[in-house]
Amino acid sequence: MTGPDKSRNDFPVEASLPTGTAPLESILCTEELQRRPSRPPDYEKENRALVKLVSALADSPSTIFQTLAETIQDITQCDSAGLSLLTKDGKTPHVEGQRFYWPAICGMWNPHVGGGTPRNFGPCGDVLDRNRTLLFTHFERRYPYLMPVSPAAEECLLVPFYVDGQAVGTIWGIMHSDRRKFDAEDDRVMASLGKFASSAYQARMHIEDLKFQVAEREKAEAEVRELASGLEAKIRRLVEANVVGIFMWNLGGAITGANEAFLRMVQYDREDLVSGRLRWTELTPAEWRGHDERAIADLKATGIFQRYEKEYFRKDGSRAPVLLGGALLEGDGNEGVAFALDLSEQKRQESARLYSEERYRVVVETASDAVVSIDDKGSIVFANPATATVFGYDPAELVGKPLTLLMPEYMRELHQTGFQRYLAIGQRHMNWQGTELTALRRNGEEFPVEVSFGEITRDGHKTFTGFLRDISKRKQAEQALRRSEAFLAEAQHLSHTGSFSWCVATDEITWSEQLYRIYEIESSVPVTLELIRTRVHPEDLTLYERMVEDARNGGSDFEWQYRLLMPDHSIKYMHALAQATRDQDGQLEYIAAVQDVTARRLAEEARDQARSELTHVARVTSLGTLTASIAHELNQPLSGIVTNASTCLRMLAADPPNVDGARETARRTIRDGNRASEMITRLRALFTKKSATTQSMDLNEATREVIALSLSELQKNRVILRPELAHDLPLVTGDRIQLQQVILNLLRNASDAMSTIDDRPRDLLIRTEPDDNDRVRLSVSDVGIGFEPQAADKLFEAFYTTKNEGMGIGLSVSRSIVERHYGRLWATPNNGPGVTFSFSIPCTPEGLADAETPVNLTDLSADAA
Amino acid sequence: MEPPQARGGSDRPLLSVVDDDESVRESLPDLLREFGFAARTFSSAEEFLSSDCLDQTRCLILDIAMPSTSGPELQRELKRRGQQIPIIFITASTDQTVRSRLLEQGAVSCLFKPFSDTALLEAVSSAIHPK
What is the CATH number of the domain that holds A815? Predict the structure, then answer.
């Protein structure tokens, strides 16, 4: 202790001391120890106490402080004894303690175990500061914090307590009364006990330290064990993962264990391994044994060997390239572990790379394109053999020459500028793939080339390799093609004919320019079926869709007439002829020509209209006139007959009867009757036709002719005609023209019956087929308005009609024609909408050849029906 | 049907028949005379127009279809001349539409050949004695 001032500054408790607090010297009476009569030393007791202390140390180190306190009390016969130790913060023990604490107290102060005093303002601190034994009397007079500690200490003897030469605390004894005063003997014993206690404490600390070290070592060992087991787990996982082949081996040549990966590598199975058949010496080809021997020598010297590539035989005799590494296991140095990495894939890739390089070389050598490489100075470093054919230079002679040699004069500067700019700032001045340029042959001829090139950087230097293809021939062909395309376009324009191709699988459609013009669609617009659909006349849409569907399924040529409704509401008539082809992939493709036949069609329509009207007029008027004329002719004589007969009656009824007059009128009646009879004879003679000519004929062919004649009219009426003509139809004998009139009549009736049908396609089926009893049947089915069942009988009567415009003649004429062929004509309602008219005629009707039979009156209208 | 009582003589009403058909010209006058009328026949419109019977004719029985001038044409010609002779058309035609058209244009009646004696008498009666 350097002085109270410093203590005050250092310790706030002291700073707060009231003035008049007792100075340190006033509470010390150490010198009195020497002046007091001293009792004789009791060494025996002292020895016993020390033995007790030692045995406490040995038996229970944790109670040594308590034993020490008891020993002090026992030897000094004091009222309380204990020890104070500086607190430790654990890191710097014995030095940084700021307080003393009381770990053990016996005697009257025993209840105060765990208390303590400040380091820099208290009796213990005073003892350590002076580094000697001090005797205090009523120290609470200076240190007020001791005042409440009872009973008060009359005298307190404190001895410093050292460990390893460092003071760590004090041991002390207290007298609470003056029944006895400490003396010099107490001073000696306390000092002696202090030393002993120091040694004991030191030993204790060593033991603690040792224990700590043992604990540390155990902890370290545990960590090592853990680490080892982790490592083991890792190794085990490695082994089990079978990524790397691992096997145990011995110097004797045996493989004593292996994982799946290794077995797989050498294509052996576990049975081979277990049976001991697997020996690394035998797996190793002869030329690799030297490597193995060197590795074993390394192993023996260092415990490991440098990994190296080698090969093992597989079970099938082929070789597995591996990378091998390994180490000897601890023990007798006879056994080791090795890992093997399968290099097959790596070797294969390497081989593939070599092959690819070789292939590349072959490609370049044999290419018909010139292949030229230049360095970053623009000098040619390589030219392939084709350069000779393309440019006329020997490849070897080009090496070292500037690339510009192969360009026309006027391109060289441009090339140099672009090349330099690319090298400088990496900006390309042209497309590197498939660019068309002009090149220069050795003979000075310029020619078009297609250039593609790429670059390689090696060691900081760029090399450029280009493929230069002579495209002069292609250019010529392109020009020729363009010319012929131009001709074609002109021809298409002149003839109002466009063309298109349609790949059915992809619906890819290509139109010629002219077709775009006809459809009045911008030629940049991609053509789709949907786009075409928007132009097709609404009334022809069903036909259009049917056509598309048939074309998709059919794969045969088709012909199609349809109308376009243009945005300005004008109508264009189109005629398409499509040819089915197969492209190189076998896909169905149609190539078609489409002609704008509007002008022709309008003319035809006008003509058809005129003809149709004429026909109708002729039909109506001729029949009407005929009927009227016949009626007129007959009514004249009939009128005479009736009048004369009436007159005759009246003359006879008169009174007297005018017999002469009556005779005269009767005579005239007879005359008129004869006149009428003659007239009928004349008519019969007139109506008897001998024109029926019979021949052996093909009904299919006759039907096809009728279809061809009526197709345009059927299409105009939006009728979809489906012919199903039997292939094996026998020939029939009959009047071809008359039978065709029947067929024509049936087709027209069917078409007429569907003229008001708009909610479904106007399907018309015409079918021929062999019938029973050596007959042939032809039927025509429509989906039209049909007829009432009760009307079926009347259908064939002359003048019966369901049509507003018809005369009702056709079916009756048709029936009479069919009957003249000894056949039958009938009608049946369909299951769905519409009617089927059929006729069936024998193939060889008897008596038909003798066609003298006069036809009835209605036959006359056959021509017009 | 009551025929007029008078027989023969110029006091009988004169009916003129114009028809190109001879059997009509032969048969019809006898019947008309049986009815009590006087009857003259002409084979064509021209023949009738050039005769002296126009003023005396009380009723004209006229065929429609004749080779030269048709019945309706004669009707128009008479109208043009101011001759108000009632006309009964007769025709061998079967066209019923003709009838209404002719009636509209002023004909008394139109008979289709062959017609009955009573139909003729009825027509002639209504021509001579209009109601």
Answer: 3.30.565.10
Residue A392 located in a structural domain: yes
Q: Which residue, among A69, A67, A40, has the nearest Cα to A56 in the 3D structure?
A: A67
Cis peptide bond upstream of B114, omega within 30: yes
Q: Is residue A219 part of a domain?
A: no
- Judge contact between A679 and A665, C-beta under 8 A: no
Top-ranked range on mean pLDDT: pick from A255-264, A594-603, A616-625, A718-727: A718-727
Residue A601 main-chain phi, psi, to 5 deg? -65, -40
Residue A287 has what DSSP assignment? G
Helix residue ranges, H only, A144-242: 184-241
- Tokens 């025709």 belong to B91
- Give the residue from chain A lying closest to B32, CA to CA: A647
Identify whether A218 is part of a domain.
Answer: no
- Name the residue range of residue A39's domain: 4-211
A562-568 long-range CB contacts below 8 Å, 24 or more apart?
A562/A536, A562/A537, A563/A536, A563/A537, A563/A539, A564/A518, A564/A519, A564/A535, A564/A536, A564/A537, A565/A535, A565/A536, A565/A537, A565/A538, A566/A520, A566/A535, A567/A520
Query: What residues of chain B have any CB closer than 8 angstroms to a CB in chain A?
Result: 21, 23-24, 26-28, 30-31, 34, 65, 90, 92-95, 112-117
Assign A466 to helix, strand or coil: strand
pLDDT in tens, A136-187: 998 888 888 888 888 888 999 998 887 777 778 888 999 998 888 888 888 8
Q: Choose one of A544, A565, A596: the last residue of a domain.
A: A596
pLDDT of residue A841: 92
Q: Is A459 helix (H, G, I), strand (E, B) or coil?
A: coil
pLDDT digits (tens, 9 = 90+) for A743-784: 888 888 888 889 888 888 899 999 999 998 889 999 999 998
For residue B36, the chain A residue with the least C-alpha distance is: A650
> Sign of torsion, CA A117 A122 A127 A129?
positive
Q: How confident is the model at residue A804 (pLDDT cuts 50, 70, 90)?
A: very low
Q: Are both A299 and A392 inside the same structural domain?
A: no
pLDDT of residue A792: 61
**Domains of chain B, first to last:** 14-128 (3.40.50.2300)
Residue A467 pLDDT grade (very low, low, confident, very high; cuts 50, 70, 90): confident
Question: Per the domain annotation, does A570 fall within a domain?
Answer: yes
Structural contact between residues A177 and A90, judged by C-beta atoms closer than 8 angstroms: no
CATH of the domain at A160: 3.30.450.40
Of the candidates A325, A142, A358, A168, the residue with the CA atom closest to the CA atom of residue A246:
A325
Tokens 């039907």 found at: A703
Task: State phi, psi for A655 to the nearest 5 degrees.
Answer: -120, 110
pLDDT for res A852? 40
Q: Are residues A135 and A207 in the same domain?
A: yes
Rounded Cα gap, residues A300 and A318, in angstroms: 31
Note whether A532 and A659 are same-domain residues: no
What was the pLDDT predicted at A858? 36
Nearest CA in chain A to B93: A632
List the single residue in B28, B93, B114 with the smallest CB-CB distance to A628.
Answer: B93
Q: pLDDT at position A23, please? A: 85
**Contact indicator for B16, B29 with CB cutoff of 8 Å:** no
Q: CB B23 to CB A639 under 8 A?
A: yes
Which domain-ending residue is among A671, A687, A703? A687
Instruction: Give chain A's domain count.
Output: 6
Helices and strands, counts by H and E, chain B: 5, 5
pTM for the structure as a whole: 0.29
Q: Tell whether A332 and A402 lie within a shared domain.
A: no
Tell me the three-class secondary structure of A122-159, residue by residue: CHHHHHHHHCCCEEEECHHHCCHHHCCCCCCCCEEEEE
Q: List residues of A whose CB lies inside 8 A of any B CB.
A: 627-628, 631-633, 635-644, 646-647, 650-651, 654, 661, 664-665, 668, 671-672, 675
Inter-chain touch B114–A627, beta carbons under 8 Å = no
